[in-house]
Automatic annotation (TrEMBL):
Residues 1-24 form the signal peptide. Keywords: Signal. Pfam families: DUF6702 (PF20420). This is Orphan protein. InterPro entries: DUF6702.
Length: 168
């Protein structure tokens, strides 16, 4: 292959690669999964967030604690964000959630919560505000694993609390 042709092909790829990188940078999504741990008989909630989004949202606060790979920063982010996720049962009673921990693993940041429930409520009201105050276009995906099937909700823009049921 001629060197000039290789250079032209490489330069032609620049806009495509730049668009792919920009698209990855704009990927402001979060995935939350709710399952029942049959071994512990507790409701487990796992939030998976791109670490890059956390770093942008918390900026200097994360850096002041030594970076997201340090426990003080992880604790600060975990406490802050876990307070913006709430569950209620069918009677409108808030389901108490306990923050179990938070950790950085590769490009993802995880926040772990649990509730002392022996089953997933048939009807739950969910308010999922994590990072949505930072970005209006943030999309928070929620999957509830009922064992035989999974139900999903998407929170975006100015959505408030939503209801999810175990009906198929």
């Amino acid at each position: 292959m001629r060197p000039g042709l290789i250079l032209c092909a490489w330069l032609a790829l620049f806009p495509i690669l730049g668009a792919m990188q920009a698209q990855a940078h704009l990927e402001q999504t979060l995935l939350t999964t709710i399952t029942l741990n049959s071994r512990t008989q507790r409701l487990e909630i796992i939030h998976q967030i791109y670490a890059h989004d956390i770093e942008h949202a918390f900026g200097n606060a994360v850096q002041a604690d030594g970076g997201l790979d340090r426990i003080p920063a992880q604790a600060m982010v975990g406490i802050e964000l876990s307070s913006t996720f709430k569950l209620w049962d069918a009677d409108g009673e808030e389901i108490p959630l306990t923050l179990v921990g938070a950790e950085l693993e590769a490009e993802f940041f995880y926040i772990y919560q649990e509730a002392e429930l022996t089953s997933i409520p048939e009807v739950m009201r969910v308010d999922h505000g994590m990072l949505r105050n930072h970005w209006p276009n943030m999309q928070n995906y929620l999957n509830v694993d009922y064992g035989n099937f999974i139900k999903s909700l998407i929170f975006s823009n100015n959505d408030g609390a939503k209801t999810i049921t175990n009906e198929q």
